[in-house]
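Table S2 (continued). Query chain:
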Amino acid sequence: MQSEISFNVRRKDFYIDDVGSFDGFVAVSQDPEKPVSEEETLCVEDYGFDFKNECVLKVRINPKAIKLNNDSLVNLEDLQVVIVLTDYCLNKRIVLFVKALEEIGGEQDLNYRLNELAECSFSNGFEISVFVTLRRDRDRANFKIWNRSQVVFLKRFTARISHDEALFQVNWVDFGDPRESNNVILKTRWLDSNVSILPSFEVVQVLGNLRLREQFVRLESNSHFGHFCLKNMAVPLVSEITWRCLQLANFEKDPEQDSLHYQVLALCQKLDLDADEIRRAALDEDSQVRANTLAMLNARVQSLFSVGGDLATIRFGGYRTS
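Corresponding output:
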């Protein structure tokens, strides 16, 4: 019998602990009517909230608030601040700001309008990450903090859809098959049947056609009919996920709080539907019962998304201004 010994050598890239105090260094607001705050959760909104047009970011940074320890491995003049914006829907990151701390001086407000970022969606919210790292123009060999991936400060601010409402996020992938890559926008892939235990992302994926992602973003930015079109894409996905989840769910005990089943129960309350009745109909041997119940579910989802209301407000006949 042979014994095996394994050795691991790791480089600690994140040097956050014991560098000093960053209290008051950064504060953020996503609403021009609200003051900036150091709270990391900016807002949690219902599904369908228009982050892109409703949110105007203000990031306030104040290098004078930083107090490094006397025995710190780095000096303030050797550091820079980096601000990165992440679009949850498209999994896209944009570097908004990079500047040496000593060049900023005192308190500074940075303002960003999300609707000016045409390449982003923000359907599911966003994250603002503020890093303090080694400056680009410093010789790394002269510092014990040897790599810019070593972060002496990191804080994330989030604005997102409520977890009990966001049944899925879109994962953009290459569909491969020309029949799909040329003609399909979104599709589902079921990964597991344990809907009463596992969270949604471990049970089902919604895959977006990477080839059409830029067009998807342009559509969402269209103020005339973009949201109407996207809601029509979402309705069959939400109906399918709800229907299939209730077919697979274990109703003999309460679902885990973060599970897909738990989320679907919350959705059924908003739809004013009895989840147990939907489940029984979904498992009914009578195909007409199944078909009519699924049709009713689909209509309720349309109502929740106000699809008809959106269509009623669309103006046709051109968009020229007088």
